[in-house]
Design brief:
- The protein is of the alpha/beta class.
- It is 47% helix and 12% strand.
- It has 9 helices and 7 strands.
- It has a 7-stranded parallel sheet with strand order 3-2-1-4-5-6-7, sandwiched between helices.
- The longest helix has 27 residues, at 111-137.
- It is globular, with a radius of gyration of 19 Å.
């Protein structure tokens, strides 16, 4: 049985922290003593998340701060720096969790959608990671966890934007892991094969079925293991043996199988 972490001296930033897997990360870190900075685009959801987290541990003395911020906007680093400095906050954990999903052909995707994927999954992750590690290498401590996806190995029709930008996160984070290793700063990329949240829009019965056969992980189960790997400063985490094995087979899928995905799934959603 792994030892429960003591995070009572830690301050963690969680992007996309007002819901889904981000909220699960926040609740888990708070449970073990970490104070939090929740970053999300929705102020209402942030306020609700803060209340949920605070109610989960009523006797806790750790703090929950909220910052409404669109990570696709300009000057994200400056806004986050200003917030931290004004509150005299010095985070030692950053979880880049904020993300979007779409199953749609590139030809059916707007330029705005393309920009949003690149701005959120590429630019925001890059600049926030750089900002964080530059602060932490001076103190020779800290933990960064960037959320990629199993889809980074899956160039499938309909996932061009999602899988390619998630692939960037994985490669970027793996390289950054080695760049800052000498400074005692941990950099980890998580590549979940699927988590039972609302991101993919699955009905509840299918979520339960997928969890039962091991295709999807529960949010709390995934978070516990991902944080454990982060605190051990592992370079990568892929949940589940089935998911790790499937990487080998996805890479050698023939074109005929990929075209079945296009014809039976993707084409149904294309409006002519």
């Amino acid at each position: 049985m792994p030892k429960s972490p003591d995070l009572s001296a830690s301050l963690a930033i969680v992007t996309g922290g007002a819901g889904g897997i981000g909220l699960e990360f926040a609740k888990y870190l708070y449970k073990f003593g970490a104070s939090l900075i929740l970053v999300d685009i929705s102020r209402d959801r942030l306020d609700e998340a803060k209340e949920i987290i605070s109610d989960s541990q009523k006797t806790a003395h750790n703090m929950v701060y909220v910052l409404q911020l669109d990570l696709t906007s300009e000057n994200v680093v400056e806004k986050l720096t200003s917030f931290c400095d004004s509150q005299l906050l010095d985070p030692d954990i950053l979880i880049n969790n904020a993300g979007i999903f779409s199953f749609k052909a590139i030809t059916d995707s707007s330029e705005k959608t393309i920009d949003r994927f690149i701005d959120l999954h590429v630019r925001a992750v890059s600049v926030l990671s750089q900002w964080f590690v530059k602060r932490r290498i001076q103190k020779r401590s800290g933990y960064l966890l960037n959320m990629s996806s199993m889809s980074c190995w899956m160039p499938m029709p309909g996932l061009a934007l999602y899988s390619s930008t998630k692939s960037y996160i994985r490669v970027f984070t793996r390289a950054l892991h080695y760049e800052v290793k000498d400074f005692n700063v941990g950099v980890t990329v998580a590549c979940p094969g699927g988590i039972a949240t609302d991101l993919f829009g699955l009905p509840e019965k299918w979520k339960k079925f997928a969890v039962g056969i091991g295709v999807l992980d529960t949010p709390d189960g995934f978070v516990k293991k991902a944080v454990n790997r982060m605190l051990k400063k592992k370079k990568q985490y892929i949940n589940g043996l089935l998911n790790r094995i499937s990487i080998l087979f996805v890479g050698i899928l023939p074109t005929s199988i990929r075209m079945i995905v296009k014809h039976r799934l993707l084409d149904k959603g294309i409006v002519r």
